[in-house]
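Bug #77: duplicate submission created two jobs. Keeping one. Sequence:
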Amino acid sequence: MIINADILKKYDVPGPRYTSYPTAPHFDESFTHKSFADEIVRTQNGNSLPNLSLYFHLPFCDTLCYFCGCNMLITRDRNRVKKYISYLLKEIDLLKKYIPLTRKVAQLHWGGGTPTHLTPEEIEYLISYINNSFEFNAGSENGCEIDPRGLTKEHLIALKEGGFNRISMGVQDFDEQVQKSVNRIQPEEMTREVVGWVRELGFLSINLDLMYGLPFQSLNGFQKTLDATIDISPDRIAVFNYAHVPWMKKHQALIHPENLPTPEEKLDILKLTIEKLTSAGYVFIGMDHFAKPDDEMAVALREKKMYRNFQGYSTNAGCDLFAFGITAISQLENIYAQNYKTEKEYFTALDSSTLPTWKGYRLNDDDQIRRFVIMKLMCDFELNIPKIEDELKIYFNKYFNWGLKNLEKMVDDDLLVINSDSIQVTEMGRLLIRNIAMIFDGYIERHEDKAKYSRTV
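Kept job's structure:
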């Protein structure tokens, strides 16, 4: 895959990542715990209810990574962690009252923060409670994010014995100077050892996260990180763009802007990354994800069975997502519901036996149509116009008249191929799929989106 750096520069603008539509800045506090509970109850009717996807937010970390954009809490207070786990159990018990026991879990994900900040015993305790509270499908996709720093083999054993079969691990960059500048010292030998444990224990898949745009990164330095990553040979690789937003994440002020690579250097690193990984045999999934050709994600891309939610790309489409813990976001067919941001608010809600919903959103008809089209683009990288018109009962060219006019320049830049009954995204277009999706975003079209987003490249 050959990358045109001039095209990357042209489309390097702020834009949503579209893990939801509408995006989280449109959520509103008028959507309450009662709104969420009523919707759960309303959707329990019928003989073919969708499977469940469960997400648990475990926000605690031992040390602060200066680049982090996640919702995390730095603590070494084990009592604080134990208290948080006890409230996760309360939330499970409360939510179970609304969900029939016949509904099965197809997907489980632990994210953070650092889920392996929990001790092996705490991992065993929490996963045992989850397994006893819900019935899982055979072959469910159970993934956990880990941090090799402070990790023991016993952590992984606890995860494997609890039913986890996929692991994701942050690396960012193997260069020692880069690691020191972002306060994340993780020697390559440590990463290799943990990958060895993951494989020895029989996990089905391992993903490594890299990041470009960090302090002191260079083309030559990142090439060494890529060479080492390819040699480690993970099943999946995600390569994220560092968004320097100290006005949103105050700790990022610890990173000095003068040490960051220039926009041109960032684009060169991204170009190198894509060309090197695809040359090594990885399939470019889209945006910032790569997978081996026989990985479930690459298979799902070929078979047009990919899905996208708040955890990113997934192979489990059509699930109802219930999310537990602070800031976690649930998603049903017609609504999104986000939990409180702070432990105090989260605990108070659960102490009063109410769902800890902070805000949310109910989709209108236009939202449903645009979400369908945007998610088709993000996951299938094509639109079959007659099928969309038949399913959504719209005249596509009229409904998306504004967007189609704005797509013409993307055809000229070889991001799209458009004919009378389809829109096809090229390989280069997959990298800039956020930009393409923005053309179909009603809030952007109506100039109603005032949120600040990370840049698309």
